[in-house]
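Agenda item 2: G2I complex prediction
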Amino acid sequence: MKHKRALRAAVTIAVTGALAAGMTVALNPAAAAGTTLKAAAAEEGRYFGAAVATGKLSTGAYTTILNREFNSVVAENEMKWDATEPQQGQFRYTGGDRLVSHAQANGMSVRGHALLWHAQQPGWAQGMSGSALRNAAINHVTKVATYYRGKIHSWDVVNEAFADGGSGARRDSNLQRTGNDWIEAAFRAARAADPGAKLCYNDYNTDGVNAKSTGIYNMVRDFKSRGVPIDCVGFQSHLGTSLAGDYQANLQRFADLGVDVQITELDVMTGGSQASIFGAVTRACMNVSRCTGITTWGVRDCDSWRGSDNALLFDCNGNKKAAYTSVLNALNAGPGIPTDPPTDPPTDPPTDPPTDPPTVGCSASVSLNSWTGGFVATVKVTAGSAGTSGWNVSVPLPSGASVTNTWSATATGSTGTVRFANVDYNGRLGAGQVAEFGFQGNGSASGLTPTCTAS
Ligand code: G2I
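Presented output:
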């Protein structure tokens, strides 16, 4: 491990220099590199998992890849409410048990998915409401988590309870209509049933700082402050052709609340950027020490719910795709490599000499997501021509505004002019390279003008 870290430091310096010079480099130090996803992830203290349709476990081509590359599994459907309690009070664990025994026989951990969700409810629950539904839901959590007690690494206790769009509010559902406290009731029941499992909230469209992820963030912060037992947040990460620039910062702000974060259902639209997006997500997880593992939502492209999107790491013949290599390299590189994929250098030399002198230090720009009484600011730090070995950003806040939480930087002060210094992994930037950090606050913060100083 030490040897690998030393190698990594050397490689990081070489890579930074090479990137500045516009070269492509392999990030993978030959000596201690893992040759499978699970080995490379394990070297960084993380798991690498796949969603499994248990019916496929008897397909040799499928199971060969699963056993070779993955050390965590999650049931794609077999542990959901409709599968485990098809009639009220009658529990069926056949599919889930099959997956658990496969995992145990092959040294894999198991993610449990999902105890409560507005979708894939059994018909009998869909027709219920009020306290009858609440009681049935909590009974479901208790029975299933008790049955699997000691066998589950992390449970998705509640799945997808927040609305899409700009409201940041809960999604309407029969469960939500039983009362806003249904989520905390579910977490308490799960903790009582299986005290050893990590208890997660899991959702999608939470791939950056946005209204939905901020709604969830506020819930988690509230749960932590009131002692509601929550241990982790799952970021499904069903991704398209681009990745939010603040993907890593968003993971970090949750981690800073004192929960683990996990990438739980990763798949990415096929196309030119697929491999680099997979790599960037993996780097983000490597760069957030509380990001404990990554799960892809299936094994081969043809196993995926996304059908023709070819959204996974193996093609239908079981061959490793470019995206696989990108993930493996990112796992082997470990922490310290920026999340943003490097942009290609221009191919033609510029015809006119630049008239403006290059920025020597650094510059900072801020984008603001505000609501009544609060805001989230995302700050982009761009290194000047000399690069940086560290940076400081000063942000004068309007009176009445205060910073309550910061991620990917260390804040000094919370009102007036607040100073933000780089953290370990984002201070060293090559010429033109960008780091991002963010902060949340109370009050109104329009018109922020940050000033950047490089060291
Ligand atoms: O929709 C993708 C995922 C989003 N996050 C939560 C996950 O649980 C969800 O997984 C998908 C499964 O991959 C699909 O396989 O959830 C779907 C249901 O919402 C699953 O699809 C269902 C079909 O809709 C059913 O018709 C089918 O009977 O799979 C069932 C079992 O094959």
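Discussion summary: The CA atoms of residues 267 and 423 lie 30 Å apart.
Owner for follow-up: CH.
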